[in-house]
Amino acid sequence: MPIATELTRILGIKYPIVQGGESWMQWVGTPPLAAAVAVSGALGMLTALTQPSPDALREAIRETRKRIGASHGRFGVNITLLPSINPPDYAGYAKAALDEGVDIFETAGNNPKPLIEFIKTYRPSGSGDSDPVPKRFVIHKCVTVKHALSGQKMGVDVLSIDGFECAGHPGEDDIGGLVLLARAAKELSIPYIASGGFADGRGLAAALSLGAAGVNMGTRFMCTAESPIHQKIKEKIVASTEKDTIHIFRTLRNTARVYRNAVSTEVVRLERRPGGAEFADLRELVAGARGKKVYETGDHDAGIWSAGIAVGLIDDIPTCDELVRRIDRDAADVIKRMYGMIKPELDSENGPSASQVKAKL
């Protein structure tokens, strides 16, 4: 039987596994992958900002549903609020998803409170003032316990806690998941999932032991049969080790973990030169169009592309269904093995217990 947690109960999914949909999954969190993850029994996630407009997101949602068909798979929409001179139409993307009946959202980034309130209270087009607002679920991603507590106060349903191991933006405090997740268990009163460095059953079992209700995986789902990126990039991930990522933008205090290649190495070189570097000096190197080219052409040196240190745990390119089932099975085996480590003490009729013998010694 699948592992059941508060996450599976709340979201109505079979397995406590969420596909990463945050901004660094741009060009990856698209209908083919989100639908395949949903059909597998985990939670698929569309990355809203991959789509050029709210109307394009509507079409992506419809395509995802068509691909899921009658399987009853579940998926959501990620909306990451990024610092920008000309910010995207976040409310427009949310409205498009809500009008299409999406009831699971993942938020991340700068001050999500207005967006969360909009998602929770919006009435779909055509509904009356007396009609009840449909129940929506919000997963909010953060990299510190402080921000997690803020998200909890905002009324989110689940928190996603990103450790230093994650791809994309891990924050500036460099706190690994082992401590961060244990802190979350002590401080939070709502369920949370673990993100950053998770790719297999051992990771899921570890996350559950630390108090999480499931795991979020981005890099691992990039390297699946249904992932919409070039086969050569998937093969590059398989060939990589945990040493093959690098942090850029450290000197700009906007740290991002990306794959170590010719472009990211040059960005770091420029940052470390005497006098450092301004974003303007790096803009052309880190342009999103170059990153998209990586996934389209298979040239891993064409631009910046995100990857977590979970690359060191990835050694195959399975279907999403094969991956999710394997992770659940392997996690269950780990949990059973650990349960077997608990030895019952003998009662008094059968002689002294281990603790009694130890006390006498």
From TrEMBL:
Coiled coil segments of this chain: none
Keyword entries, A-Z: Dioxygenase, Flavoprotein, FMN, Oxidoreductase
Keyword Protein transport set for record: no
SUPFAM superfamilies documented for this protein: Inosine monophosphate dehydrogenase (IMPDH)
A Pfam family assignment: NMO
Molecular-function GO terms, alphabetical: dioxygenase activity; nitronate monooxygenase activity
This protein's record includes keyword Oxidoreductase: yes
Protein name: 2-nitropropane dioxygenase
Taxonomic source organism: Kwoniella heveanensis BCC8398
